[in-house]
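Reading a protein record of the kind used here takes little practice once its layout is understood. The reader may check this reading against the record printed directly beneath this paragraph.
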Amino acid sequence: MMDRRTFIGAAAVCVAIASRAAGAQPRALRRIGYVGNGNAGTTSTQLEAFRLGLRELGWIEGQTVAIEYRWAEGRPDRIRALVDELVAARVDVILVSGPIAIAAAQRATRTIPIVFVVLIDPVAMGFVQSFARPGGNMTGLASQFEELITKQMQLLKEAVPNLSRVALLRHTEGAPSILAAAESAARSLGLTVRTLEVASAADFENAFRTARNERVGAVHVLPSPYVGAQRARVIELAARYRLPAFYELRTYVEDGGLMSYGPSAKDLYGRSADYVDRILKGANPGDLAIERPARFELVINGKTAAALGLAIPPSLLRRADEVIW
């Protein structure tokens, strides 16, 4: 049996523990800043992949982590202010995509860790020192479009019989290296190139009208998060002007575009959660090697091809990772 002295001592300990618990403050959630180039609808697939990746690593939104969302709504001019907001809010890490957003984040902070997803070479763009050791406060995933473009042009030429003239649709603030690589790849395959630039949503109609009037055989949509934010419009115009169009990401093809060849955006964003996890656990972003995708997928929309009167060669259909009907 417990004697009186032991009972009083145990009671005192319980009171002390209860007192400390009552005065303790709830632990603050770690905070992730997320800059979307479009809106929640246009980036839903990537965003859900990122959230799922976080959940698998134990970061539950609203329970163990908070995500501060900022949306550019397809307007590159808004990116800088949105990044500045997240820096002022002192989030623990910021996730961005595309060269404009990366440049804005690099300008805004040299201390808050930045994780990026980009479709071009971040070393060539001067964002990081190397793939193995990025240095500074940035790291992430990069697919290096410059190494894919020749394969994409070959696939487009195979899909469109007698293709001789191709239009390159690009955003005016897109990386010059992307345009140079695309022009070089097209010319190496004997294709004449017509570059069509868009600066705002109002420019897309004129770009496709020009392509049709100049008897372009197909359009290659160069990767851009801002063109991606307008992808429903791009797909609709390609169908209306009856122009076969090639894209970097399968999300276009799932929404009605003709063909894509490139990395899975879903995989890239899912993997970005691993970088965020390691950084929140204390890793230095400058020491985390930049990851490059190992898998690329060819996706063809058979219904769109039929609507265009385009007979995709059976050999190409057999090589596709997925044909959507």
